[in-house]
Amino acid sequence: MGADFQGWVAAHQARFEEVLCGLLPRAEIAPQRLHEAMRYAVLDGGKRVRPLLAFAAGELAGAETARVDVAAAAVELIHAYSLVHDDMPCMDDDVLRRGKPTCHKQYDEATALLVGDALQTLAFQLLAEHRLNGHARFPHPNLPPQAREGANESLREFHVNDDAARQLEMVRLLALASGSRGMAGGQAIDLSSVGQSLTLPELEFMHIHKTGALIRAAVLLGAHCGSASAAQLDRLDHFGKLIGLAFQVVDDVLDCEADTATLGKTAGKDADNDKPTYVSLLGIQGARDMAQRLHREALETLDGFGEPAQRLRELADFIVLRKF
Question: pTM here?
């Protein structure tokens, strides 16, 4: 990563952590244990790739950063809920996530289940509530407790969009990406495929849904916060599809080559669970070649956008080249 891009990433990660901190329920509000666990599952972890994609797409579409905050948070909350549920014994049964104990290990299985449920519903609540003409306000996380009692006492505003039709479309996009025709459906296919040999089209179909759908949604939601045209949205959707697949291919390679400390989660889990992956189907070099091809095609999709697409190009590089 170039120094300028590194600075952009670090600045957005830092301010986005503050955004998340302000949007999540405070741990001292009842039910305290659930709210504490929600914050544990979301804060202080992860590279925030999906929010960064939303911010980069927002820049391309001329959106103010503040308009992208809630959309990016909604995507990250859906992602965090999916990780909490994926790690549970009934799914992948993992004990480590983002370098710390998984939510059901730190708390318990029932709490982890409710954390996922609550994060999912909070994501849609945020998208539905916040509009530029609604003046929705939230307590700044650094204010003392006595100054944060009422939502109307905050000095911090979060915006999504002042166009109700576009806001409704954003809710639809996130719902589609999260449900049976998106992430949840992909996870169902993943669970039913353990021990089986999938063809490349079958594996791509699974990951277009399981991993790619939410990445595509992040790009589109960021662009919807600005003034992207229908043609531009189509191209950005294709970019998101390609880079979402590339993200999974690289994950499969890293699962074989990186150690647990580097990954922040248990290395070699897919092979241990006999899951079909791009590495098991294509081999390490074949998977690497596929990631590079998807990377090239994703960058080609951005041709014609010029300088406004620079952050998306750099994020595509980061996704494919991370420890690769």
Answer: 0.88
